[in-house]
Write a structure and sequence with these properties.
alpha/beta, eight-stranded parallel barrel, globular
Length: 204
């Protein structure tokens, strides 16, 4: 399983049993990666396991935000790590050599170089545009993606990305576009996901 295409990050409503249909709609729309991020909502192990199974039915990797132990217990495909989370090495030791371990690099190319050297499987940069999810995040410039291409890792762009501005990030070097509200903030989740995934299909 690779990290490329539309990378959906769940909102709180997706993290409850009744929210599983929201993730299913995103997968029907073409999402290629799912990150389970349930800040403030918590995520029960049985719900996490159901989401992992759902992703696997679409041959889509499912990652857990921050929580290495939940990733292990739910048989997720990996984990996404922020600045204050476990190290790449600790996550690898717990989850094994086949796990996908991604890491937030914010707008810091030196951090990305270090994380690539330590074995991160993909590098996430952002916020590229104003974001309601993280309104105070440091702003990244698309040129950062171009510079990071030399690291030889899939690059994930995040932060305020819309179908209207995502194409420029793909052109700059993004392998995947990570989206929360742009997909899950819509009544038509499937259609919203499809609009993003079409950006990648149009660039082939």
């Amino acid at each position: 399983m690779k990290v490329a295409g539309l990378y959906v990050v769940t909102d709180a409503a997706c993290c409850r049993p009744e929210g599983l249909a929201r993730v299913h709609a995103a997968l029907l729309g073409g999402a290629r990666v799912v990150q389970l991020r349930c800040k403030g909502a918590g995520l029960a192990i049985d719900t996490a396991q159901a989401l992992v199974a759902m992703g696997h039915a679409f041959a889509v990797p499912v990652l857990v935000n921050d929580d290495v132990e939940l990733a292990h217990a739910s048989h997720a495909d990996g984990v996404h790590l922020g600045r204050d989370d476990a190290t790449v090495e600790a996550a690898r030791a717990r989850l094994g050599p086949r796990a996908i371990i991604g890491a937030s690099c914010y707008a810091d190319l030196d951090r990305a170089r270090d994380l690539a050297r330590r074995g991160a499987d993909y590098l996430a940069f952002g916020s590229f545009y104003p974001s309601r999810t993280k309104p105070h995040a440091a702003r990244a410039d698309p040129s950062l993606l171009t510079a990071a291409r030399s690291l030889g890792k899939p690059l994930v762009a995040i932060g305020g990305i819309l179908p209207e501005n995502g194409r420029a990030l793909i052109a700059a070097g993004a392998s995947a576009l990570a989206v929360v509200d742009g997909v899950f903030g819509h009544n038509d989740i499937r259609g919203a996901a499809r609009a993003y995934q079409r950006l990648f299909e149009d660039t082939v």
